[in-house]
Design a protein that fits this description.
- By secondary structure, the protein is α/β, with parallel strands linked by helices.
- The chain has a single domain, classed as Alpha/Beta hydrolase fold, catalytic domain (Rossmann fold).
- Helices cover about 30% and strands about 20% of the residues.
- The protein is built from eleven helices and eleven strands.
- The strands form two sheets. Strands 1, 2, 3, 4, 5, 6, 7, 10 and 11 form a nine-stranded mixed β-sheet that branches. The chain has a two-stranded antiparallel sheet with strand order 8-9.
- Helix 3 links the parallel strand 3 and strand 4.
- Helix 4 packs across helix 5.
- It is globular, with a radius of gyration of 18 Å.
């Protein structure tokens, strides 16, 4: 099977943006608890602000790199979480959602060099970025395309292919045992990847990419995600910007705003015009780049 690369994903951007994509990021490796973690970078020691991109369940760092690389003058990094991208794990069947949270918290702490950090989360990576900011206190701001609480039945209804009756939906998540927890199933069986993009070709690319939507994930990981308790929004102290695709056919706006309205820290909503769940359309991709740049400028002034 051909493995899609950064150029393949960049081809779905409008031409005016495609010409500005940094196609050859620096590849680095960070070792963490039996995982060889792949991190793509556009290092800039002179930049006043750092940005870390966190992918969701159907993507990886390389898939999102073309959009992320459009962000302005920042020291940029994008991490491949275990089971996805080019990160290699000693025991993939044992990976759980809490490992994602712990890995990101440790990475943020390990790379803290005193400069402000903006966490950028895509899809379920939005709540991951939120959680890492809440736990570490090391981020100056969070920008998320979604804020999905997996314990909310309304969020579960839209996340899986089969609605609330989908695989591991509801109480079934708590019944995954020690043996069955290691069974790995294609993510495309579980997630509604056909609604990833307004462009069917991009949705198909994500679904067949063995490093993204085509990855096989343990049932135990899915169960751990659906039962994970994120930090309540009333305890959040980091500013949050929800940059939500206006034509997202996968995760409706109200699923994310239900959480955003309760965030105790400064919170704002920006709509990405004409964009689907994977935001590559004009003018919304420009909206996304613009809002991240504004957040970067805001934290730099503090």
């Amino acid at each position: 099977m051909d493995v899609p690369g950064i150029t393949d994903y960049a081809s779905f951007l409008p031409r005016s943006w495609r010409e500005r994509v940094a196609l050859r990021p620096e590849r680095t490796t960070w070792r963490w608890r039996g995982h060889r973690v792949n991190v793509l970078r556009r290092p800039d020691p002179e930049a006043a602000v750092r940005t870390l991109l966190v992918h969701g369940a159907g993507g990886h760092a390389g898939a999102l790199w073309p959009v992320a690389s459009l962000i302005g003058d920042v020291d940029l990094a994008a991490v491949d979480l275990p089971l996805y991208g080019d990160t290699v794990s000693r025991d993939p069947a044992a990976v759980r959602y809490a490992d994602w949270v712990a890995l990101l918290c440790d990475l943020v702490r390990a790379e803290d060099d005193g400069r402000p950090l903006v966490l950028l989360g895509a899809s379920i990576g939005g709540m991951l970025a939120y959680e890492v900011a809440a736990r570490t206190g090391r981020a100056a701001a969070v920008v998320a395309t979604c804020l999905l609480d997996p314990r909310d039945w309304r969020a579960r209804t839209v996340m899986t292919r089969f609605g609330p009756a989908g695989l591991l939906g509801g109480m079934a998540a708590g019944l995954v045992g020690r043996r069955s927890g290691g069974w790995r199933v294609p993510m495309a069986w579980v997630a509604a990847l056909g609604r990833m993009s307004r462009n069917p070709a991009l949705s198909r690319l994500c679904a067949r990419d063995p490093r993204g939507g085509g990855a096989r994930v343990p049932l135990g990981f899915l169960a751990s995600y659906l039962t994970f308790r994120h930090t309540p929004p009333e305890r959040m102290r980091t500013p949050v910007t929800l940059a939500h695709p206006a034509r997202d056919a996968w995760t409706p706006l109200e699923v994310s705003t239900r959480w955003l309205r309760r965030v105790a820290a400064p919170a704002e909503l920006v709509m990405l015009r004409e964009c689907g769940h994977f935001p590559v359309e004009e003018p919304g991709v420009g909206d996304l780049v613009g809002v991240v740049n504004r957040v970067v400028e805001r934290v730099d002034r503090k």
